[in-house]
Amino acid sequence: MSQVESRGPLVGVYPGTFDPITLGHMDIIHRATKVVDHLIVAVARNAGKAPLFASAERVEMVREELAQMDTNGVKVEVRDFDNLLMHFCQRIGARVIVRGLRAVSDFEYEFQMAGMNARLDPGIETVFLMASERQQFISSRFVKEIGRLGGDISSFVSPRVADRLTASFSGEPMP
Hints:
The structure is a single chain. The chain is α/β, with parallel strands linked by helices. It has helices spanning 3-6, 23-32, 55-67, 85-92, 104-120, 140-148, 159-170, and strands spanning 11-16, 38-44, 75-81, 96-101, 125-130. β2, α3 and β3 (75-81) form a beta-alpha-beta unit. It is globular.
């Protein structure tokens, strides 16, 4: 029995604010299911980023999107967290942090973060997945800005998420 087999299933965490969840996020989630046995999409309650959607709404959006996705038979769940990512990973027994990279500009920040996390817990590895060519330029910040100004966001988010954004910008409650 290999060392990996003796540890049980490989649990990975894909953390983010997901405000809102984009097709780029979904691409990384789908690809992460090819790497881990159990994936937890960890929605940060990060009030410092002043999210458009409340934590519970973001968790609900991610769950709705996952319900439409082929997860390659891998258990994927959504949880929110408001503490240090490494503490969250330790608490749930995760051994891998999944991070998506869109461009070289992401790399420097993510490299520094991976180094800090490795110092906090060297038993938890960070795995970088490059964004697919079609998703490399998508960011939640740009999606919100385009949507707020009335632009077409249909190629960046699902119709469900687009409806939520439109309702949010118009001040209408979601049905």
